[in-house]
Amino acid sequence: MGTTKQITVEVPEEHAEVLDRAVESGTVEDLAEAANLGFENVVAEQLDFEARMEEKIIPRLQEMRENPSIALTSEQMRAKMREELHARRAEAAWP
């Protein structure tokens, strides 16, 4: 992991109680492990978000700037979303 940086965090009392129980039950070794697990989740989500932006969103926006005709109007997008919603509801319906 490389170098580390010490930080102090405050959590709501209810969270602290749950974290204490997690340590007592052996779910985590100590509060530092619990904090690290949480931070790892946030870091993973952020890196995933950044990768999607770089790989999909930004290129698509550049594509639409170069060729605005491929973009959907708000009305077209609403219609497309309604169609998708109806299709999903139809799939979920019991026969």
Automatic annotation (TrEMBL):
Q: Tell me the superkingdom of the source.
A: Bacteria
For this entry, the protein name equals Uncharacterized protein
- Source organism of the structure: Nesterenkonia alkaliphila
Q: What is the lineage of its organism?
A: Bacteria, Bacillati, Actinomycetota, Actinomycetes, Micrococcales
